[in-house]
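Researcher: Next sequence.
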Amino acid sequence: MGNYLINHNLFVIICLAYYLYGWSFFGLDISSTMSVLALCATFVMHWTAYIGIYKYKLAKNKDAIYHFLHQDSAVSYSNLEIIEDHSPQEYKESITADNLYFQKLELLCKDQHIYTDSTLNREKVAEKLGISAGYVSQIVNTITGDNFAHYINQYRVEAVKEMISNPEYENYTLLTIGLESGFTSKTTFYNAFKKVTGQTPNEYKNTIK
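Model: Next structure:
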């Protein structure tokens, strides 16, 4: 701010000097005006110096006040025990099968069939539930004993089993049914189905004929 005032005042003085120089070019007597200009320039220089010194003292006073105020705080809290707690509130709750967020997740799967979204992940589920992705994993792992991916794949496998048993889908290929249920490829579909049921989709289809 101080530099701005100095530069601004110098700019004004220079402009006045050029203006008066223009008058002298046309032969006008400007001796009295020059005296006034010199007086104004002297005043401006002294005023600028005063402002600079004032702001410097003000800055030093602000620093002194800051250290004074925080010195008392440092003394007051120096003997207190500091307990660091980085765990979100949600992690402090005991996780059981009646956990509110797990119940909401179950409804999302059973009623809204979110598992049919092949791009579904922990982050998307966390956003729907209003919790963190880490907490989604924690409640699923604690309550089901499996990870999030396996939990979702179980719903997909059950959907596949229902469609295989439904005559309405008898003209659909197994891969089509798997993709419609949310699996992203034949490999992930067959591996997940075998892990959940102990059979391949073809084996399961043959057992229900």
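Model: The CA atoms of residues 122 and 134 lie 8 Å apart. Confidence is low (pLDDT under 50) at residues 2-6, 58-90.
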